[in-house]
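Q: Could you write out the predicted structure for this multi-component system? I'm mainly interested in how the pieces pack against one another.
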Amino acid sequence: MKFLHTAFQNMKHPFEKGGKFEKYNKVLTAIDALETFAFTPEEVTHTGSHIRDGIDLKRTMSVVITAMIPCLLFGMYNAGYQHYRELGELATASFMDMFSIGLLKVLPLVVVSYGVGLGIEFGFAMYKGHSVEEGYLVTGMLIPLIVPVDIPLWMLAVAVAFAVVFGKEVFGGTGMNILNVALTARAFLFFAYPTFMSGDKIWVHEGMTNDAISGATILGDLASMKGGLETLRFSAQEMFIGLIPGSVGETSTLAVLIGAGILLLTGIGSWRIMLSAVLGGASMGLIFNAFGANGLMQFDWWQHMIVGGFAFGVVFMATDPVTAAQTNTGKWIYGFLIGFLAIMIRVFNPAYPEGIMLAILFMNVMAPLIDHYVVEGNIKKRLKRLNVKTA
Amino acid sequence: MSKDIKINKGLNIPLKGEADKVFGNAERSDTFLVKPTDFKNFTPKLLVKEGEEVLAGSPLFYNKEYTDVKVGSPVSGEVVEVIRGAKRKILGIKILADKETRYAEFAAADPSTMSRDAVKQRLLDQCLWPFIKRRPYATVARTTDEPMAIYVSGFDSAPLAADVDFVLHGKDKEFQAGLEVLKQLTDGKVHLNLHRNLSTSDVLKSAKGVQVNWFSGPHPSGNVGIQIHHIKPLNKGEVVFTVAAQDVALIGSAFLTGKYDASRVVAVVGPAANQPKYFRTIQGAALKSFVADAKSNNTRFVSGNVLTGKNVGADGNLGFFDKEVTLLEEGNHAKFFITEGWAGPGLGKFSASRSYFSWLMPSKKYDLDTNTNGEKRALVVTGEYESVFPMDIYPQHLVKAIMIGDIELMENLGIYEVDDEDFALCEYVCTSKTPVQQVVKEGLELIEKECG
């Protein structure tokens, strides 16, 4: 691979000091980003420990992306599956028919998300003269998975641009943001273009143009339902596997669980947040079950966890370490409240029966406060030790 | 009343190149170097000039702040050079050694019958005081300190560290005498901390008149700071002393014989060491005199252990406190992402996380180099530091408090209880490659300057 390494060096020469394009030296940042993608640099330790762990941010991020691949692939398949299901053509459509619809619809979403997002990241890095950080690699994959399949590409591009600039870069870039960037993009779409983000027409491919296709989400059905749960169109098994309408990658609890397995096994995702969020969601669900005033409240507590974006949000977005609580105790509180609030908002929100996005965004804002009190507790303990001595 | 303390958090880094418990042949070093930079926050004032003759144990320089604290020469000979750096900072005092060491002679003394002042005076006169460190700050003890207790860590849990049991073998008398000296210095207890699995030697176990505490668990359980935290955490305004086990024996021998015998048993270890074993040499000796050739030319010579030692180079000298020399291959080559870099299976990479497949081989030993394995980034991952930091302190919050220079917050978060070596593992595991030890060191310097 020496030739590639030399090629990068040669590419940099004209922009370095004394080179032909010296005044465009900001381009170096971009070349550097590509070079360090291909080669871990020859940098050695200078202070402190002489050896360092094998892990770096690129590895961390690539593990998270790997964990999302089952969701992505299943989402592609499900996009086609829901389309043919609504048309009543499930029996005649082949696996490839279904998957190719999804592929053709979802791949552009991924390309636009990465293209726009990374473009802005590179631009900011070059402008500010710091290296391109890897945070967007995960965000860029998350965003296509949490939007409806038919979202116009230009809307996605606008949302990504908004989220990266106002959700992240204005705070200082990767590691500095307060809100989860992917959810900022989704929240932007949700409030700016509500007709493309909610209702019962948008969740299935061609639902907006073809009257034969309706396809409300299960939660939508439940919210509008006056009677019992008998009329529900999907079985619990379908919900778990994910053959239900919804955003691209969120429907399959099974795929999410595979991702969760990867995150937990590698130790990249916080088990504390995942576990406590499930506990929080279960508690709220049980409370609602006890009342059972309407369809959403009667819906079994465990079924709440396998529909909508609950599982996906808990595994992939609540665990974002930058926006989550940072202390271990804080993580328990943070996760529990996310689960609790997600189900609560889902049931009480009359306009849009889903709550995980708002729950996570709200807890993102609250996370520093939780940490503050946890750390304050530690400080008090230390001061008390001192006071006991002096008293 | 001995305590039993289990350390759960931490990490043993499985490096190749542990020293065999045999002695290699060390030549006698011709030149010796005493480096004032081995002492934290220590401004040296010279007591000798180039060309002057010194004896082993005669003072070379003293501390500008505490003028009684003098650092002695490890051997007799001629001061050939005072090495200076930028702004004429003294970096080292080079001594051309005599063939036979001549000692600055003192009368033999029995510490258990001496008064505290007499013991103190003797420690200062014989240049033994610099071996005693104080907490907070982990600097050389001040002569005005009244320590609440004195802690001796009887084992070293750092990767490839010299085995204290082996090093102290046959030094029962000296070690016990050293403990007697320490007992005179405090109204509190002298704690000797041992490890359930690592400490087997009778020299340590049969120590008398001290409180023996038993630890178990991975590194950093051998760090004296961690031990203090678990035995009795330090509050603001309190002072304790710490002495390394091998130095306790050195102090003891100096009282018993009246001679400052700076000989040391040093382990030469590390993945790049040809034949890792132990050597008998002297403090400040040139590495060349006992370290055999490394496996390659591209080797880093570290005086001290792999987590906290100093890069001294092949021509360097053994540091004042160091008990091992670690040889590592320099990792100064780029690693292609699929084969060796971030996208590879990573079978040769050790990681505290399980993101590389090397975790499937728990008993494997690693040949790690000095590459940072990634670039410096903003802090993203949380919970990493906590998992290797066995104190009731929030390490990442403390590090951030130091970065922003908030002294009150640093105090509140427990900076008086830590030393940079306690953060070595945090630095090792950091995904964002933050120079944590450097940050903590600067924080401690700031606090000492501002708060005394």
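A: Regarding packing and overall arrangement: Chain B touches chain A through 75 residues (CB under 8 Å).
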